[in-house]
Amino acid sequence: QSKLPEYMVPTAYVMLEALPLTPNGKVDRQALLAPGQTQVELEKSLVLPQTEMEQIIASIWQKVLDVEKVGIYQTFFELGGHSLLLVRVRSKLQEALKLELSMVELFEYPTVHSLAQHLSRQEDISPSISTVSERAEKQRQVMRRQKQVMQRVRSAN
Which one of 69, 74, 77, 104 is separated from 24 by 20 to 30 angstroms, measured CA to CA? Predict the structure, then answer.
């Protein structure tokens, strides 16, 4: 824990006498046991999404990770995610929320709850696309008027 980021620290260790192997000598990942936590314990600690933002994020995680339930305090990586799947999540979140989102943010906020809080704050702070478009159009109109005034002044001289 002192040397690794939180998302890289294993949540459970399983002691095996030997790794199960496929006929060609590679590790048989399907034959490996699930981590020590039982399904009953997992469901007891499962807190389902409450807010709209949490529900959007959780549903995207469910589709990308192909899991039935996503708790708001489970990390993306605990649920079986990895960096390549995180790229897909980022793309789907940007599409659904119409927000720019960096990969770094997804690593910094690895739970549905923390990401939802971060994105809600970001949504409040950043102006909407329509607001930015309206401002840009007003600036263009002012520039056109200034240009027309300058042309009138030049033609008068």
Answer: 77
What is the rounded radius of gyration, in angstroms, for the C-alpha atoms of the chain?
25
Whether the CB-CB separation of 50 and 72 falls below 8 Å is answered with: yes
- Pair 101, 93: CB distance under 8 Å: yes
- Per-residue pLDDT reduced to its tens digit, 70-119: 999 988 988 888 989 999 999 999 999 988 899 999 999 999 999 999 99
> Any idea how long the chain is?
157
Query: Residue 32 has what DSSP assignment?
Result: S
Taking Cα atoms as reference points, which of 57, 116, 67 lies closest to residue 90? 57
Token pair, residue 18, equals 């030997």
